[in-house]
Amino acid sequence: GAVVSQHPSWVICKSGTSVKIECRSLDFQATTMFWYRQFPKQSLMLMATSNEGSKATYEQGVEKDKFLINHASLTLSTLTVTSAHPEDSSFYICSNTGREGAYNEQFFGPGTRLTVL
Amino acid sequence: ELKVEQNPLFLSMQEGKNYTIYCNYSTTSDRLYWYRQDPGKSLESLFVLLSNGAVKQEGRLMASLDTKARLSTLHITAAVHDLSATYFCAVDRAPGGGATNKLIFGTGTLLAVQP
Fold it and tell me: Are B101 and A97 inside 8 Å of each other by CB?
Protein backbone atom coordinates (compact mmCIF):
# COMPACT_ATOMS: atom_id res chain seq x y z
CA GLY A 1 0.00 0.00 0.00
CA ALA A 2 0.84 3.64 -0.22
CA VAL A 3 3.15 5.29 2.29
CA VAL A 4 1.92 8.54 3.74
CA SER A 5 3.93 10.59 6.21
CA GLN A 6 2.97 13.58 8.32
CA HIS A 7 5.02 16.19 10.07
CA PRO A 8 5.05 17.07 12.86
CA SER A 9 3.69 14.16 14.88
CA TRP A 10 2.73 16.35 17.80
CA VAL A 11 2.59 20.10 18.19
CA ILE A 12 1.66 22.32 21.10
CA CYS A 13 1.05 25.98 20.41
CA LYS A 14 -0.36 29.06 22.05
CA SER A 15 -3.81 30.34 21.27
CA GLY A 16 -3.80 32.80 18.37
CA THR A 17 -0.82 31.36 16.57
CA SER A 18 -0.81 29.45 13.28
CA VAL A 19 0.35 25.90 12.81
CA LYS A 20 1.31 24.15 9.59
CA ILE A 21 0.95 20.40 9.16
CA GLU A 22 2.59 18.59 6.26
CA CYS A 23 1.32 15.47 4.54
CA ARG A 24 3.63 13.69 2.13
CA SER A 25 2.87 10.91 -0.31
CA LEU A 26 6.14 9.02 -0.35
CA ASP A 27 5.66 6.48 -3.08
CA PHE A 28 3.17 7.90 -5.53
CA GLN A 29 2.19 11.23 -6.98
CA ALA A 30 -1.13 12.14 -5.48
CA THR A 31 -3.26 14.67 -7.29
CA THR A 32 -5.80 14.32 -4.51
CA MET A 33 -5.34 14.00 -0.78
CA PHE A 34 -7.86 14.14 2.03
CA TRP A 35 -7.74 15.78 5.44
CA TYR A 36 -9.63 14.36 8.39
CA ARG A 37 -10.00 15.55 11.97
CA GLN A 38 -10.60 13.39 15.02
CA PHE A 39 -11.54 14.84 18.38
CA PRO A 40 -10.72 12.78 21.49
CA LYS A 41 -12.78 9.63 21.76
CA GLN A 42 -14.71 10.50 18.62
CA SER A 43 -14.78 9.33 15.05
CA LEU A 44 -13.00 10.81 12.05
CA MET A 45 -14.62 13.63 10.14
CA LEU A 46 -13.62 14.62 6.62
CA MET A 47 -12.55 18.24 6.56
CA ALA A 48 -11.50 18.84 2.99
CA THR A 49 -10.22 17.40 -0.25
CA SER A 50 -6.85 18.74 -1.32
CA ASN A 51 -6.40 19.07 -5.09
CA GLU A 52 -2.99 19.54 -6.65
CA GLY A 53 -2.76 22.81 -8.49
CA SER A 54 -6.24 24.01 -7.61
CA LYS A 55 -8.33 25.05 -4.67
CA ALA A 56 -9.26 22.60 -1.97
CA THR A 57 -12.90 21.66 -1.54
CA TYR A 58 -14.15 21.95 2.01
CA GLU A 59 -16.87 20.02 3.78
CA GLN A 60 -19.87 21.82 5.12
CA GLY A 61 -19.11 23.58 8.36
CA VAL A 62 -15.34 23.71 7.85
CA GLU A 63 -14.01 27.26 7.63
CA LYS A 64 -11.77 27.55 4.58
CA ASP A 65 -10.18 30.75 5.87
CA LYS A 66 -9.21 29.07 9.10
CA PHE A 67 -7.94 25.81 7.66
CA LEU A 68 -5.76 26.74 4.73
CA ILE A 69 -4.83 23.90 2.42
CA ASN A 70 -2.05 24.08 -0.14
CA HIS A 71 -1.29 21.24 -2.54
CA ALA A 72 1.52 22.74 -4.55
CA SER A 73 3.18 19.51 -5.60
CA LEU A 74 2.12 15.95 -6.30
CA THR A 75 3.74 14.69 -3.13
CA LEU A 76 2.93 17.38 -0.59
CA SER A 77 -0.23 18.83 0.87
CA THR A 78 -0.16 21.23 3.80
CA LEU A 79 -2.86 22.18 6.26
CA THR A 80 -2.40 25.44 8.12
CA VAL A 81 -4.56 26.09 11.14
CA THR A 82 -4.69 29.86 11.38
CA SER A 83 -5.24 31.70 14.65
CA ALA A 84 -5.61 28.42 16.47
CA HIS A 85 -7.79 28.21 19.53
CA PRO A 86 -8.18 25.46 22.13
CA GLU A 87 -11.26 24.11 20.34
CA ASP A 88 -9.02 23.34 17.35
CA SER A 89 -7.08 20.85 19.45
CA SER A 90 -7.52 17.57 17.66
CA PHE A 91 -5.83 14.71 15.81
CA TYR A 92 -5.40 15.65 12.14
CA ILE A 93 -4.93 12.80 9.67
CA CYS A 94 -4.35 12.93 5.94
CA SER A 95 -4.90 10.18 3.40
CA ASN A 96 -4.63 9.29 -0.25
CA THR A 97 -5.76 6.44 -2.45
CA GLY A 98 -2.37 4.94 -3.18
CA ARG A 99 -2.66 5.26 -6.91
CA GLU A 100 -4.32 7.57 -9.36
CA GLY A 101 -7.92 6.77 -10.15
CA ALA A 102 -8.19 4.21 -7.39
CA TYR A 103 -11.32 3.97 -5.30
CA ASN A 104 -10.78 0.78 -3.46
CA GLU A 105 -8.71 1.78 -0.50
CA GLN A 106 -7.46 4.75 1.44
CA PHE A 107 -4.05 4.95 3.05
CA PHE A 108 -3.77 7.11 6.12
CA GLY A 109 -0.83 9.03 7.47
CA PRO A 110 0.30 8.60 11.07
CA GLY A 111 -1.56 11.72 12.17
CA THR A 112 -0.62 14.99 13.85
CA ARG A 113 -1.82 15.73 17.33
CA LEU A 114 -2.44 19.44 17.82
CA THR A 115 -2.84 20.91 21.28
CA VAL A 116 -3.67 24.59 21.55
CA LEU A 117 -3.13 26.14 24.96
CA GLU B 1 -27.40 13.00 5.06
CA LEU B 2 -25.43 9.79 5.16
CA LYS B 3 -25.14 8.34 8.64
CA VAL B 4 -23.01 5.44 9.74
CA GLU B 5 -23.67 3.87 13.10
CA GLN B 6 -21.83 1.14 14.92
CA ASN B 7 -23.03 -1.10 17.66
CA PRO B 8 -21.83 -1.56 20.31
CA LEU B 9 -19.80 1.54 21.14
CA PHE B 10 -17.78 -0.28 23.75
CA LEU B 11 -17.17 -3.98 24.11
CA SER B 12 -15.34 -5.75 26.87
CA MET B 13 -14.86 -9.43 26.26
CA GLN B 14 -12.79 -12.28 27.53
CA GLU B 15 -10.08 -13.99 25.55
CA GLY B 16 -11.34 -16.96 23.62
CA LYS B 17 -14.86 -15.61 23.17
CA ASN B 18 -16.62 -14.67 19.96
CA TYR B 19 -18.49 -11.47 19.20
CA THR B 20 -19.85 -9.40 16.33
CA ILE B 21 -19.67 -5.66 15.73
CA TYR B 22 -22.41 -4.19 13.56
CA CYS B 23 -22.20 -1.27 11.17
CA ASN B 24 -25.41 0.22 9.77
CA TYR B 25 -25.47 2.96 7.17
CA SER B 26 -28.28 5.05 5.80
CA THR B 27 -27.71 5.27 2.02
CA THR B 28 -27.12 2.87 -0.83
CA SER B 29 -23.34 2.90 -0.86
CA ASP B 30 -21.72 -0.35 -1.97
CA ARG B 31 -18.25 0.48 -0.67
CA LEU B 32 -17.53 -0.27 2.93
CA TYR B 33 -14.23 -0.27 4.77
CA TRP B 34 -13.10 -1.52 8.16
CA TYR B 35 -10.20 0.08 10.00
CA ARG B 36 -8.41 -0.53 13.25
CA GLN B 37 -7.02 2.27 15.41
CA ASP B 38 -4.68 1.72 18.35
CA PRO B 39 -4.53 4.43 21.05
CA GLY B 40 -2.71 7.51 19.82
CA LYS B 41 -2.17 6.00 16.39
CA SER B 42 -3.60 6.42 12.94
CA LEU B 43 -5.77 3.97 11.02
CA GLU B 44 -4.81 0.54 9.79
CA SER B 45 -6.86 -0.85 6.92
CA LEU B 46 -8.45 -4.20 7.70
CA PHE B 47 -10.99 -4.94 4.99
CA VAL B 48 -12.41 -3.42 1.81
CA LEU B 49 -15.87 -4.71 0.87
CA LEU B 50 -17.09 -3.71 -2.56
CA SER B 51 -20.17 -5.76 -3.35
CA ASN B 52 -23.26 -7.28 -1.83
CA GLY B 53 -22.46 -10.55 -0.14
CA ALA B 54 -18.74 -9.85 0.08
CA VAL B 55 -17.01 -11.73 2.85
CA LYS B 56 -13.38 -11.37 3.80
CA GLN B 57 -11.37 -13.01 6.54
CA GLU B 58 -7.99 -12.30 8.05
CA GLY B 59 -6.92 -14.24 11.08
CA ARG B 60 -9.54 -14.00 13.81
CA LEU B 61 -11.51 -11.28 12.03
CA MET B 62 -14.15 -11.75 9.36
CA ALA B 63 -16.13 -8.98 7.69
CA SER B 64 -19.24 -9.21 5.58
CA LEU B 65 -21.45 -6.80 3.66
CA ASP B 66 -25.17 -6.89 2.98
CA THR B 67 -25.94 -3.87 0.81
CA LYS B 68 -29.67 -4.56 0.75
CA ALA B 69 -29.85 -4.35 4.52
CA ARG B 70 -27.17 -1.61 4.54
CA LEU B 71 -25.34 -3.62 7.13
CA SER B 72 -21.80 -4.80 7.60
CA THR B 73 -20.53 -7.04 10.36
CA LEU B 74 -17.09 -7.60 11.82
CA HIS B 75 -16.95 -10.95 13.55
CA ILE B 76 -14.27 -11.73 16.09
CA THR B 77 -13.44 -15.37 16.68
CA ALA B 78 -11.62 -16.55 19.80
CA ALA B 79 -10.52 -13.08 20.78
CA VAL B 80 -7.00 -12.43 22.00
CA HIS B 81 -5.66 -9.44 23.90
CA ASP B 82 -3.81 -8.15 20.82
CA LEU B 83 -7.14 -7.41 19.18
CA SER B 84 -7.85 -4.68 21.74
CA ALA B 85 -8.30 -1.45 19.75
CA THR B 86 -10.98 0.81 18.33
CA TYR B 87 -12.61 -0.46 15.16
CA PHE B 88 -14.21 1.86 12.64
CA CYS B 89 -16.32 1.12 9.63
CA ALA B 90 -16.51 3.72 6.88
CA VAL B 91 -18.69 4.18 3.83
CA ASP B 92 -17.96 6.03 0.62
CA ARG B 93 -20.25 8.99 0.32
CA ALA B 94 -21.28 8.18 -3.25
CA PRO B 95 -24.61 6.35 -3.62
CA GLY B 96 -24.89 2.94 -5.17
CA GLY B 97 -21.74 1.65 -6.79
CA GLY B 98 -20.18 5.04 -7.26
CA ALA B 99 -17.07 6.27 -5.48
CA THR B 100 -15.75 9.59 -4.33
CA ASN B 101 -13.02 8.48 -1.93
CA LYS B 102 -14.72 10.70 0.62
CA LEU B 103 -15.40 8.48 3.58
CA ILE B 104 -18.03 8.81 6.26
CA PHE B 105 -16.87 7.03 9.37
CA GLY B 106 -18.92 5.14 11.88
CA THR B 107 -18.97 6.00 15.54
CA GLY B 108 -16.30 3.45 16.36
CA THR B 109 -16.30 0.43 18.66
CA LEU B 110 -13.76 0.29 21.45
CA LEU B 111 -12.85 -3.33 22.01
CA ALA B 112 -11.12 -4.42 25.20
CA VAL B 113 -10.14 -8.07 25.38
CA GLN B 114 -9.52 -9.21 28.91
CA PRO B 115 -7.23 -12.15 29.72
Answer: yes
